[in-house]
Amino acid sequence: MGLTFDDLPLRPELRGEEPYGAPQLDVPVLLNVNENPYPPSERIVADIASAVAEAARSLNRYPDREAWALRQDLAAYLGHDLTAAQVWAANGSNEVMLHLLLAFGGPSRVALSFAPTYSMYPEYARDTLTTWITGRRADDFTIDVEHAVAQIKQHAPSVVLLASPNNPTGTALPLSLVEAVCDVAPGVVVVDEAYGEFRRDGTPSALSLLPRFPKLAVSRTMSKAFAFAGGRLGYLAADSVVVDALRIVRLPYHLSAVTQAVARAALRNADELLARVAELRVRRDETVLWLRSLGLVAADSDANFVLFGTFPDRHAVWQGLLDRGVLIRETGPDGWLRVSIGTADEMAAFRAALQEVLGS
Ligand code: PMP
Questions:
Q1: C-alpha angle 28-33-39 in degrees, rounded to nearest 5
Q2: Are residues 146 and 265 in the same domain?
Q3: Are residues 53 and 106 in the same domain?
Q4: Which of 89, 154, 173, 244 is spaced 20 to 30 Å from 258 by Cα?
Q5: In terms of Cα–Cα distance, which of 282, 338, 319 is closest to 117?
Q6: Mapping DSSP to helix (H, G, I), strand (E, B) and coil, where does residue 308 land?
Q7: Domain's final residue, options 272, 296, 330
Q8: Which string of b and e fits 119-157 if b means at least 16 CB within 10 Å?
Q9: Model-level pTM?
Q10: CB of 34 closer than 6 angstroms to any ligand 1 atom
Q11: Is residue 118 lining ligand 1, measured as CB closer than 6 Å?
Q12: What is the tens place of the pLDDT at every residue in 141-178?
């Protein structure tokens, strides 16, 4: 008999756990992990390649531990008069969130969010020995202010996590909700704006609230709108003291010289990389209307995906689509499925496959 987990001193709460992740399958139409479907142009590929070559010349040295130049570029990109000292960066916003819970969570501390929400949050809590508590979202996936305030008063969380737009529902939160939460939260409030650039007009970013709420942090990523998921770069804007707390828990040299150089090259090309966002937003809105025209329910979305349903056997629908070469995500509340917004051709393939599966 080979080695099993039972032979290892694996932490008891990790027994029976599966590594997180959507299936990575080799199918023609990938609409399952909310990527931007458009690869960089050859001109940007060349720019990135020369940045890598430049970084390669000093790979014998450790990279800038503070990633200072990159943080300056990110601050300039974010605007709102932010400086590099108010910006943090890590390998994806997943790592930014882990840093937040390492610094502000821990044994006998509570992290609070509102379900359904991003399924990695409870994992950061588990890994940092933080108690994970969820309040609830309303039927339309918004958060009721009174419920949120009551949950915070009851549980006194050291971290509140608010995804806006939320994954998997696509729901953006009004700033009035974020303000009400910041008014009562005893600890740090994190607004996860991974999909911020996809918001519909009239739902502003929580970045504008930073000057008023020193314990507010707004996290972003280059993985989605920026079409840079493979580059692994997430970042956060907050008071410089919050950032200093994250610097304590990060691993030394956590951002490789190559990551820093490639992310800076991508930021130099922000306009071109972000150019398809408007088009994706239009296609998202069309997808919502099309799903509703079939008699399905589709949640209003401010992100680059749509949660829709409801199906008595959602797995059968997911499998039917996969059998037709279209991979979407089986996630969210029972009966719902989530489709990421792809190219026009990919969405046409999705529509054709779904109509076949539903026999309509
Ligand atoms: N936050 C939310 C709400 C997400 O959906 C995701 C990715 N699915 C992330 C954070 C993490 O993204 P990344 O680590 O690629 O920045």
A1: 65
A2: yes
A3: yes
A4: 244
A5: 338
A6: strand
A7: 272
A8: ebbbbbbbebebbbbbbebeeebbbeeeebbebbeebeb
A9: 0.97
A10: yes
A11: yes
A12: 999 999 999 999 999 999 999 999 999 999 999 999 99
Identify the domain boundary among 272, 299, 316: 272
Residues 34 and 46 both lie in one domain: no
Tokens of 276: 């398809």
98 lines ligand 1 (CB under 6 A): no
Nearest CA to ligand 1 atom 2: 194
Q: How confident is the model at residue 360 (pLDDT cuts 50, 70, 90)?
A: low
Instruction: Say whether both 249 and 280 belong to one domain.
Output: no
Range of the structural domain that residue 74 is part of = 42-272
ipTM reported for the complex, 2 dp? 0.99
- Residue 242: left (phi > 0), alpha (psi -120 to 50), or beta? alpha
Phi/psi zone of residue 130: left (φ > 0), alpha (ψ -120 to 50 degrees), beta?
beta
Ligand 1 neighbour 246 (Cβ under 6 A): no
If residue 281 lies in a helix (H) or strand (E), which one and from where to where?
Answer: helix 277-293
Q: Which CATH number do you get for residue 28?
A: 3.90.1150.10
List of residues 6+ apart from 350 with CB closer than 8 A: 29, 31, 321, 326, 328, 339, 342
Q: Does residue 151 share a domain with residue 15?
A: no
Please give the distance, rounded to the nearest whole angstrom, from the Cα atom of residue 194 to the centre of ligand 1: 6
Distance CA 299, CA 350 (A): 17
**Is the pLDDT score of 62 beyond 90?**
yes
